[in-house]
Amino acid sequence: MYSNFILCGSAQEGGKAVGTDTIAAIATGLTDAGIGIIRISGEEAFSIILKIFKKKNGDDLDLKDSHRVHYGFICDGEEKFDEVLVLVMKGPHSYTAEDTVEIDCHGGVRVMRRILELVIRHGARTAEPGEFTKRAFLNGRIDLAQAEAVMDLIHAQNDYALKASVSQLGGSVSRKIKFIREKILYAMAFIESALDDPEHISLEGYREQLKEEILSMEGELSYLVDSFSNGRVMTEGIKTVILGKPNVGKSSLMNVLLGEERAIVTNIAGTTRDTLEERLSLGGITLNVVDTAGIRDTQDVVEQIGVDRAKQAALDADLIIYVVDGSGDLDENDEEIMAFIRDKKALVLLNKTDLEMKVSFGELEKKSGKKVIPVSAKEERGLDELEEEIKKNFYGGELRFNDEVIITNVRQKTALEAGLCSIRMVKQSIEEGLPEDFFSIDLMDAYKRLGTVIGEAVEDDLVNEIFHRFCMGK
């Protein structure tokens, strides 16, 4: 049954990286800076650096020791054109598991480009986006889930996304997937062994035992799939729409959250005519905030378009922040907004608490059915409580990254859902009393589906697409 089972994702032969050509790229930003790094990886990496580097005392580079830093000059023939540090790493103990050299040079764009051109002239080629990490995956140093975590780490927009990426890079997702697959593999092996040798291995009572295992796997996979909702807002940010009547302080709140005068604020109702979108960080949480036109009945055609856009933005929001002017009376526009947000994830901000209040805190909480937070955008009060409430709504307070696994990747979520579906098919077969052969079919499918999370048996086109999204030099 297992003879046709191919495990991909490790392109190693006898523990040695498969032979490849030598690649090179600038690994730091292509802008003037204090330091720049040129990375070289592949079979010719050492021979190339020997041709272009001279130590300070004029000696050639000594390559007998790995992970050593050498001080000297990059030379083009007799011409010295930069003073550098060179780090030599012998495969497989490097990022790519290949012989690797990193040149730490001065960070001028011209300097970095000239060194890269020199490296290419002596036998390397320009690396494709993500090719260094792709080689690390193909050479078995990391799996696909860890490789994707590298890009998430680079693009992390907040502390939560950063911690999740570091956790995944350390193998948190991979370990969980491998643990579940080991249990599936054991179940398949036991069933096949019993079917092949019924005289010595009995399946009597195994259905109930397997059902318990399946229920456990179902729970673990469901948890991972469900974690994607938190993972998505962690990496992409929480789409947050600020709603309210005209002149209640929506734009003032937007400016306070941004820390700059981005939205126009006046005493004239209806100043904001269109949606204004900005990304900001609030206590380590990324919010994609949309300020909207005030919700009210209006005969102004342009303002009405803004009101319609505000309602549409709210329909697509992860979070609605409904701002109420506490110094004014509630009216039919407020009633309309409260009816709109009743079944949505929303927080109510009772604004202008620096003035005499006309709106009762308890009345507003009862009518809206939502958590009400007293704030003053003018005096910048109440924002800490707003931050804490957002954390409770989306992350259940604080995430404990030492023992939680969070899925942040759509591809991984899709594979997990497919694996979960197959596991549930096994459960259904057990409950319907079907023959054990049916269990094996769906168990095998679950095993394969989960394997794609960590890069086993994935198509080359998918691998290329994943790494093509990486930045150059990584």
Give the tags.
6-stranded mixed sheet; 7-stranded mixed sheet; 45% helix; alpha/beta; 474 residues
Order of helices and strands: EEEEHEEEEHEHHHHHEHEEHEHEHEHHHH
Shape: flat
Are there runs of 5+ residues with pLDDT below 50, and where? 1-19, 263-274
Return the average pLDDT rounded to an integer: 84
Instruction: Round the Cα radius of gyration to an integer and report it.
Output: 29 Å
Report strand %. 15-25%
Number of strands: 15
Helix fraction? 40-55%
Q: By helix and strand content, what is the structural category? A: alpha/beta
Strand order within the widest sheet? 5-6-7-8-4-3-9
What's the total helix number? 15
Distance between termini? 40 Å
Largest sheet: 7 strands, mixed
Can you describe this structure?
This protein has helices spanning 45-52, 109-121, 131-138, 144-154, 159-169, 172-196, 206-236, 250-258, 301-315, 332-341, 361-368, 383-395, 410-431, 436-454, 460-468, and strands at residues 12-13, 16-17, 23-26, 33-41, 53-55, 68-76, 79-89, 100-107, 125-126, 238-243, 276-282, 285-291, 319-325, 346-351, 372-374. It is an alpha/beta fold and 474 residues long. The strands form 3 sheets. A 7-stranded mixed beta sheet has the order 5-6-7-8-4-3-9. A 6-stranded mixed beta sheet has the order 11-12-10-13-14-15, with helices on both faces. The longest helix has 31 residues, at 206-236. The two termini are 40 Å apart. Residues 1-19 and 263-274 have low confidence and may be disordered.
